[in-house]
Amino acid sequence: MEQEEGVVYVCQQPFRFVDLSDALRYGRLQYLLPPGDITAGVAPVVGQLKNDLRDFSDKDYILAIGAPAAIAMVGAIASKANHGKIKVLTWDKKENRYYAIDISI
After folding, report:
1. Which pTM value belongs to this model?
2. Which among 4, 15, 21, 23 could bridge 35 via Cys, Cβ 3.0 to 4.6 Å?
3. pLDDT tens for each residue of 83-102
């Protein structure tokens, strides 16, 4: 049985082009929040993220780019959806690639 491809949840879409192609090694990209300030209406953002991350599982990853508040919300909500476990992609400047960090809370 072939394993289902995971999703790379990108916390916030960047204002300008950022090459995220290496992250595709981990799954298809899904942008969670548009670029810009999200602090004006946090409650609707939290509701949207809860909906978008409701199926977050062990096969999925978080690409932590964007506003620190957006990254924090995505991490907390994804962790709650997956029993305290998330995988975060981190950029390695020397290797020019992403690698995954497993976090269990």
Report:
1. 0.91
2. 15
3. 999 999 999 999 999 999 99
